[in-house]
Amino acid sequence: MPSSLGYLLAAFVAALALFFGLWWTLVSGGDEAPWIPAGLAASVVLLVALSAREVVMRRAWTRYLLDQGNEKSARVSGEHQRPQQKSQSSSGMSAAWRNVQRHSEEADAGSNPEAHFDVFHLCQDYLASADETLRSKTLSSDRRNSIRAGQERARGLQKHHLLTWARDSSRALTYEAQQRARTSERIEAANRALHCLESALQFYPQETELLESSAAIREFISSVKVAHWVELAERSAFKGHYRRAIDRYKDALFYLDRGAMKEELRVASTERIGREIESLKARVRAQKGAKAEVAREEGTDDGGGL
């Protein structure tokens, strides 16, 4: 997996360099408030860097899951030494099924999500062996029916253990995301939980539980991003930086509009942020009026003195 600290440090250094470079250029040009465009440009660089990293991490985690699955399949196959023949004997298939059942019971009795992932791959191996055995023309009809019945049971176990792995893994990662303090770490952990669910959805795309859990995690990610920018806006408003606060509230609206959130929550949040923006604009106008009044009074005093 790529280094989180190294990437974020590089992005921060690049944004900082852009900020000071642009600030120095604007100061030399006589700009009255050079830190505003410089800060906006640096913020854009950080946002683009974080968004790009989110996409890269999603793809990297998906590749990791697939590679992990291939390695585990190879290991399980090596452990059980499946005969490299077109078909297996009846006793071989029975032994393979007993092995699947034993590991299934152990996984259900334990609390390790990865054990369910192992059983999922065991079921895949069993189904592949059963398909090979069914290609044999020497099997009796009773034996074929027995193998097909075993395949149905294996498919049921395969689905059960994959869904259990996705559910338990995503819950653990979601809990980890909720405990994180930094916004980037919370989003990263939530994305890992989302990738677990998306991996299971590749096999069962219509599974309601997976779809609902994926929607809930996407809503959590959106709420984290919106809450982050709202908090930054509130800090700026508290310090009297009203224009900066307005810009950060607009960033919150950006993620609110593009995030996966419930409609009623989106509408309520949009209205609340809109009221905050209008209030801040009123404060900006009041500040301008106060400065203009002070300037007129100073001009009157100077004229009277002359």
Largest sheet: none
Shape: elongated
E-strand count: 0
N-to-C terminal Cα separation, in Å?
Answer: 73 Å
Order of helices and strands: HHHHHHHHH
Radius of gyration: 30 Å
Helical residue percent band: over 70%
Structural class: mainly alpha
What would you say this structure looks like, in words?
Helices cover 86% and strands 0% of the residues. Mean pLDDT is 80; it is low at 79-88. The chain has helices spanning 4-28, 35-80, 90-109, 113-134, 141-179, 183-201, 208-238, 242-258, 263-305. 24% of the residues are buried. It folds into 3 domains: 1-61; 82-205; 223-306, Methane Monooxygenase Hydroxylase, Chain G, domain 1. The chain is elongated and about 110 Å long. With 306 residues, it is mostly helical. It is built from 9 helices and no strands. α3 (90-109) runs parallel beside α5 and α4 runs antiparallel to α5 (141-179).
